[in-house]
Specification:
heterodimer; A: 158 residues; alpha+beta; Thiol Ester Dehydrase, Chain A; 39% strand; B: 99 residues; mainly alpha; Non-ribosomal Peptide Synthetase Peptidyl Carrier Protein, Chain A
């Protein structure tokens, strides 16, 4: 994770466009990171809003793949977000997301965050997606896709 | 079996917390019921699931923006119910309408 630039996930482990699923990993920063200074003093745990954002970014990459990078997803709704257990600094997160519904101009996903086998949180997320509103954003997302190992061959197979 | 209007009225009442008895066939989802675009996403999700269709919201929005259709054609609930019936019929006929 690079919280300063709001990069919440580190690598894509699996992308299956036929099954409409994605698995990603994220390395939670060490307890020396400033985010834990206030959350919380003497008891550092990963903020739930950042775990929710990690689920959103994971889902977003799945939607980007399904739309062949022609449309950019934007988080519109978070439902049933459940923080089931504390996430400690330095944890390795495994995040799974799947498409629950593909609507016209929107998509609904369900996502889960695990540390090891333990389910830490889950939510249902709704995204609006629109044609890329800025060429710069498209360039950025292409660079990010490369950085996190987005399997471009999955789109040609999908 | 309840009518299409009855089903979408129930969905709207539940999704948007609007009293069911205030939702009429002649109600305009936006102008009369005050449903905003985010709530309508939720409604579209529920309608798509309930009827096994994909409401072409982007196409409808484009038609309204281009002046080729009015919001009443899609957002007055009896008209919306008629559009849904058309989509269901097209799906059952195997023709599809795209999005």
């Amino acid at each position: 994770m690079q919280l300063e630039t709001f990069q919440l996930i580190d690598r894509i482990v699996d992308l299956d466009l036929d099954a409409r699923t994605i698995v990603v990993e994220a390395d939670v920063p060490p307890d020396s990171h400033s985010v834990f200074t206030g959350h919380f003093p003497g008891y550092p745990i990963m903020p739930g809003v950042l775990l929710t954002e990690a689920m959103a970014q994971s889902s977003g990459w799945l939607i980007l793949g399904l739309t062949k990078f022609e449309r950019m997803p934007f988080l519109a709704m978070v439902k049933e977000a459940k923080m089931r257990g504390f996430v400690a600094p330095g944890s390795l997160l495994t995040i799974e997301a799947k498409i629950e519904h593909e609507g016209s101009g929107f998509a609904v996903t369900s996502a889960k965050v695990r540390v090891g086998k333990e389910l830490k949180c889950n939510a249902e997320l709704t995204f609006r997606h629109i044609p890329f509103p800025s060429p710069d954003l498209r360039v950025h997302m292409d660079a990010m896709a490369n950085k996190i190992g987005f399997p471009l061959q999955a789109m040609s197979n999908g | 079996m309840s009518s299409t209007f009855e089903q979408i009225a129930n969905i709207i009442a539940e999704t948007c917390d609007i009293p069911r008895d205030t939702i009429k066939p002649e109600s305009h989802a936006i102008d009369d019921l005050g449903i905003d675009s985010l709530d309508f996403l939720d409604i579209a999700f529920a309608i798509d699931k309930a009827f096994g269709i994909k409401m072409p919201l982007e196409k409808w929005t484009q038609e309204v923006n281009d002046g080729k259709a009015t919001t009443e054609q899609y957002f007055v609930l009896q008209n919306l119910a008629d559009r849904i019936d058309e989509l269901v019929a097209a799906k059952n006929a195997g023709t599809g309408t795209g999005s």
